[in-house]
Amino acid sequence: MLILTTAERISAAEAIIGYVFHNDQLLVKALEAAGATPAAQGNKRLALIGDAALRLILYELGYEDERSIGDMTSAQNTRATNENLARIGFSLGLNAYIHLNPSAQGIVPGRLMATTVEAIIGAVYLDSNKDVMTIRRLILHLCITQAE
């Protein structure tokens, strides 16, 4: 297993997500699993922000497309799920850059991948000075809005 430096992990993750951080420590935190460092919460706080930003963008896109409330809710129930976010994260290879809890033995569970994708969205939101259009571009770049 190849050991990457923090700078290499940051650079690779930025290339995948199509966003370059001003404060790369936000990305480091987004890629940190709970228990990976003494700050046991890992990326969970960023994931809460990312989840809210993702849901806002999904509703906004539905509104712009003049979707019904049912269709907008359905998009939330399919696109913002842990299963969908984990699938996207694994397909992009983000699992190679997550700083894991040592007890994980190198295995990235699906729930952690979903949390990491949400945390990355949250980190970009904060790093971009809370720019919703930047988040929108990120979500479109990650293909979260597309059906499986």
TrEMBL record:
<protein>
    <recommendedName>
        <fullName>RNase III domain-containing protein</fullName>
    </recommendedName>
</protein>
<dbReference type="InterPro" id="IPR036389">
    <property type="entry name" value="RNase_III_sf"/>
</dbReference>
<dbReference type="GO" id="GO:0004525">
    <property type="term" value="F:ribonuclease III activity"/>
</dbReference>
<feature type="domain" description="RNase III">
    <location>
        <begin position="10"/>
        <end position="129"/>
    </location>
</feature>
<dbReference type="GO" id="GO:0006396">
    <property type="term" value="P:RNA processing"/>
</dbReference>
<dbReference type="InterPro" id="IPR000999">
    <property type="entry name" value="RNase_III_dom"/>
</dbReference>
<dbReference type="Pfam" id="PF14622">
    <property type="entry name" value="Ribonucleas_3_3"/>
</dbReference>
